[in-house]
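Lab notebook: predicted structure, single chain.

Context: the supervisor wants predicted structures on file for every construct in the current expression panel, including those that have not yet been purified. This is the next one on the list. No modifications to the sequence; it matches the entry in the shared construct table.
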Amino acid sequence: MQLVFIDGVGGKSYMRRGLVRFFTKRGYAVDCFDYSASTQSLADIKTRLRQRLEAIAARGDYVAIGYSFGGVLIRQILQEADERFQPPSRLVLLASPIRALRLSQRLSSWRIFKLLSGDCGHLTSDADAMDAIPMPTVPTACIYGVWPWLGPLGFFEGFQFQHDGMLAVAEVTSTSAEINIPIRASHAFIPGNRTALVAMHRWLNPSVQNMP
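Prediction complete. Output recorded below exactly as produced.
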């Protein structure tokens, strides 16, 4: 089975090594897509991702994991695709925003935020633009963190509501998803969290009963 992992803004290869090892060990051919939000436009990033997905689909069926902003990217690709585009058979939105982020809105006027996140950060602060991106029609799971101790959202908002240190639970869950699964992990660490990995594998491969 082919699996494509679409990273978030600022994602680093070492942060996903555990995920790559986990799925490779279980027979997946893992392809990772990353990008530089600070130097590439959103349009260019989406063009590259669309081309990568088309190349993967040419080899056969695939599943996808969109981590953080990576989930927004693949939802946009699916929204804009025509009937010739082959979507993933299953999708995980891993700690990925469904609607505008209060953290992005708080930081949107900060110069450092604009420099580091570019068009991607601007999109996540725009409520109308985020609301205009629909949930995919392919079977989709939202898997998200509920460990608020690490991340700036805890600094700004404390523990007034559930969040993973970066994104509030209300921002990463959807009634349109087939399942919403909370994981005790902070945002930056959820891609390598064992519980999250097992949940993703079971969702992407429903025939799995016991996890080695």
